[in-house]
Amino acid sequence: SLIYCLVSCSSRKRVLTEKFVAGFTFLAVSLFLAISHKYRGPAVWAGTLILLITGTLGPISAFKSINWNVMGIFGGTYLVAELFIYSRVPARLADGLVARSKNAAMALVLVCGLSGLISAFCENVATVMIVAPVAMVIARRLKVSAIPFLVGIAVSSNLQGAATLVGDPPSMLLASYSGMTFNHFFFFQGKPCLFFAIELAAAVSLIVLYIAFRKYRQPVPRIEREPILSMVPSWLLIGMVAALAIVSFIFPDFEYGTGSVCMLFGAAGTIWFETRVKKGTFSLIKKFDWDTFFLLMGIFVLVEALRAVGIIAGLASFLAQMTRGNTFLAYNVVTWTSVFFSAFVDNVPYVTAMLPVGGMLAASMSISPYLLLFGIVIGASVGGNITPIGAAANIVAFGILKKAGENVTFGHFVKIGLPFTVVAVAVAYMFIWFFWR
C-alpha cells in the first residue's frame, strides 16, 4: 500500500511537472511573439528544444505532430504568390482602379478592396507592400497624410486571408484540423461557408473605410501605370486554384492532396523564375519566408505538448462548465475571445491551440464543431486588425509610414482598425450563426 502510494504520488508529480513545463513554455513563446516580430522561428524552436530536453514530449511524437500538408500548402502558395507580385499584375490592377474612380475617396476604397481580394490567395505582407505605393502616391499628390490609407490597406488584406484555404495560416490550420478541402471553404455540408461570410464582411466593412476616407473628394491624381513583367505567374496562380478545386472534388479524402498541388505549382514557378528571369541563383528561395515556415512547424510541436499533457482537454472542460451547454454563449465566448487575444498575440499559435479546444467543447455539448471552429478562425484572423502589433501586415504598414516620415501612433491605427474589426467580425459572426447554429 505504501509502495502504491509512493508510485501514485510520483506519477502525479510527474504529470504536474509536465503540465507546468508545456504550459509555461507555450506562454513564454507566445509572449515573445507578441513583443517581437523578429526571430519568431528560432524562438519557437527554442521552446520545442526545452520540451525535448525535459522529456515532456518525445522526438518521435514531435516529428509526427508536424502537419506536412499544411507545410506544403504554405510553401507552395507563398512561392506562387511571390511570383504573382513580381509580375506587377496586382499593381497594374490597382492603377487601373484608380484611373477609373470619380474621386480620391472612391479610389482608395477600391484599392483597399483589391488588396483584400489579392490577400485571399496571396500572403498579406506581400500584398501590402505591392499595393501601398499606389496609396502613397495618392496621398503625396493630395498633400494629405497617408496614415488612414495604409491602415485601410493593411486591415483589408488581413480580413480576406480567412476567405480561402490558401489565404492565411489560420485557414490552413482549420482545414488541417477539420479535414476541410479547398472547395469546402465555399460550400460545406450543403451550406455557404467561410468564403461568403468573409466576403460579406469585407463588403460591409468597406463602408467603414469610405467613412474614414469621405473627406477626400478631390479628383484622382494621375498615376503612371506599372508595366506588367510577365503573365506566367498569373496563369500559375489561376492553374493552382483550379487544380485545388479539382483535387478537392475528386480526391476529398487524400490527406496530402492540397499540399502536393501547392508544392507542385510552387516548384514549377521556381524553376521558371530561376531559368528564365535569372535574377540570381536561387533568388526566389532566398526571399522565401523561412521564419514563418519554421514558426508553423514549431507551433505544431508546442501544441502537441499541450494536448499530450492534458492542458487542451482541461481548457475545453473549463469552457464547457462556464457556458453550461449554451451554444450561443459558447459561440460568443470563442469568437470574441479570439478577437481580443489576436489583437495582441500572434494568431498562429493561438489558432493552433484553440481549434482542438473548440472541437472538444463542441463534443462535450453534443453539437457540430464547425460553428465554434469558424468562430475561432474569424475572430483570430480579423482581431489582429485592432492594433498595429496584431498582424505582420500591420507592422509592415506601420514601418512604411514611419519611413515616409509620417508621425503614426498606436491611436491612429486603432481609430480605423477597431471599428473595422467590430463591423467585420459582427457581420461574419452573424452569417455563420445563421447558417451553422
UniProtKB/TrEMBL annotation:
Q: Which UniProt keywords apply?
A: Cell membrane, Membrane, Transmembrane, Transmembrane helix, Transport
State the InterPro entries in the record. Arsenical_pump_ArsB, Cit_transptr-like_dom, Diverse_Ion_Transporter
Pfam families according to UniProt: CitMHS
UniProt subcellular location: Cell membrane
Reading the lineage from the top rank, the first entry is Bacteria
Domain Citrate transporter-like residue range list: 44-362
- Example GO molecular function term? arsenite transmembrane transporter activity
For this UniProt entry, what is the primary localization, expressed as one broad class? membrane
Could you list the residue ranges that cross the membrane?
Answer: 20-37, 43-63, 70-87, 107-132, 144-166, 186-213, 234-251, 293-316, 328-345, 357-378, 384-401, 413-436
State a GO cellular component annotated for this protein: plasma membrane
Q: Does the keyword Lipid metabolism apply?
A: no
Provide the membrane topology annotation.
Answer: Multi-pass membrane protein
Q: Which family does it belong to?
A: Belongs to the CitM (TC 2.A.11) transporter family.
* Protein's recorded name: Arsenic transporter
Q: What is the lineage of its organism?
A: Bacteria, Bacteria division TA06
